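Technical annex B. To support the medicinal chemistry partners, we prepared a structural model of the target in complex with zinc ion, based solely on the information shown next.
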Amino acid sequence: MLTVKVDLSSNSYDILIGNKVLPELGAAVKALGLGTDAVIITNPVVKNHHGRAVTASLKQAGLTSTALEVPDGEASKSFASACELIEKIAAYDVGKDLFVVALGGGVIGDLAGFVAAIYKRGVPYIQIPTTLLAQVDSSIGGKVAIDLPVGKNLVGAFYQPRMVFSDMATLTTLDRRQIINGLAEVVKYAVICDKKFFEFLEKNVAKLLELEPKVFTEVIATCSRFKARIVASDERETKGVRTILNFGHTTGHAIEAANQFRDYQHGEAVALGMRVAVEISQQLGLIQPDGVERINRLLSQLGLPERIEHVTVAEIMTHMRHDKKFKGKKNKFVLTTGMGGVKVVEGVDPTVIEAAVAKLV
Ligand SMILES: NC(=O)c1ccc[n+]([C@@H]2O[C@H](COP(=O)([O-])OP(=O)(O)OC[C@H]3O[C@@H](n4cnc5c(N)ncnc54)[C@H](O)[C@@H]3O)[C@@H](O)[C@H]2O)c1
Ligand SMILES: [Zn+2]
């Protein structure tokens, strides 16, 4: 197994990454001494595929476990689900020494982490991310949240897990669209963090799409290292370092919201947002045309969308103006100077943004 450390002084933890490593989970958890009784928060889909392996591994290490399920889907990131889980945990928590296990994708990770953060003012939790997006992004960094009807992730906390356990083999039960969805975030890291990694992705497109274990484990480890490094230098998003993780997300979020989260997976919208950001970067003279072409080509080769459908330019622009990350009336864009180069620019001329969006619609 590979280990990536998230260095946050007293909140530090390890990300363990491997292929077919779930049998080693119990021993790794036990070594941390988090407690003796695991409350596994999951959904029926993930439980069906991977629940037994997790339970067996914990049992093997002498730990008890109980599984609490919420329905599949973003709607479970709600106060109602959180309350229901907390009531169940409280009823179960008699004579127990418990910790929480988030077993699932980003929805489960955000929800279970939120529950762990507020139950008894915080109990330990670990993340077992089972989507590519969760393994390379949402499970790392301690942002936990639920949604409100007026917007996503509006109630939450920074609450770090005690371990992230990424078994690449859990991804083999995901459908192809979910893999491609996660690959958008992988491309994001390559563009903002590392030219060599971008070249590695270009060379391994076929292996990525067929989930070749060696290449895929390498990709998860590399992205985990990037995220760990960024989080370690800006744990609570107060220093502006974490901002670069929003590459492609300003327009991506606007597309998702304008479309009422109907037709796009998050990664698909982010891929379109990255295309827009790259176009703006070119208009501002930050990136050379061959860089633009390579980023767009890689996104296409990975099966990510090339055109914005289902929403109009005007709708996207309206939602972008409402972005909560914009300070006052000033917009803020994460742009690229080429693979591995990133620049945060404030106050981009709206006509340049609109033209870049219009080019894809
Ligand atoms: N906390 C953060 O830093 C952060 C970062 C990015 C995204 N997020 C959040 O993550 C969420 C999206 O996460 P996601 O893309 O993983 O979606 P998700 O959790 O809804 O999972 C996608 C689908 O895959 C299924 N699934 C999960 N693992 C599976 C497996 N191994 N085999 C088969 N099916 C499986 C799920 O049941 C679901 O239907 C959003 O709520 C978003 O806000 C959080
Ligand atoms: Zn994202």
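Notes passed to the chemistry partners:
The pocket of zinc ion (ligand 2) is lined by residues 137, 185, 249, 266, 270 (CB under 6 Å).
The first strand starts at residue 2 and ends at 6.
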